[in-house]
């Protein structure tokens, strides 16, 4: 049985989101708005099929994927770059590699107690986010 990420999750901490956004080339004005946001994630999981909706008052982002199946991701409304994206299980962690113009780009999700963790990586920057159930 894989880990169960189903639920509605609210951001409670966001370490080095600024560094991650700079690495992605997000402009100053957009970063200023983005770092004030408290995004919510709605995750729907059926086995290895995922729907992750990240919502905020400023932008929304939907990602749908099957673990182990590479797809083209367009990052629309984020940095708007295209990537070849592959998400796999590493034990109970969901590990994403986003291959494209930016080196070392990807993320990892895992559960720790009642919290949802997300590590976002780009180049030499790591952003650590923690979410709690809504
Ligand atoms: O999550 O990929 O759960 O997709 C990363 C923002 C900010 C827009 C958010 C909107 C990167 C302006 C998605 C924030 C910064 C700044 C809410 C993280 C880019 C632009 C949408 C992510 C995965 C894993 C699923």
From TrEMBL:
Protein name stated in the entry: RET7 protein
Oligomer and partners: Monomer.
Protein family: Belongs to the calycin superfamily. Fatty-acid binding protein (FABP) family.
PROSITE patterns, per database record: FABP (PS00214)
Residue intervals of the Cytosolic fatty-acid binding proteins domain: 7-24
Pfam families (UniProt xref): Lipocalin
Organism superkingdom: Eukaryota
Gene coding for it: Rbp7
GO molecular function: lipid binding
Keywords: Transport
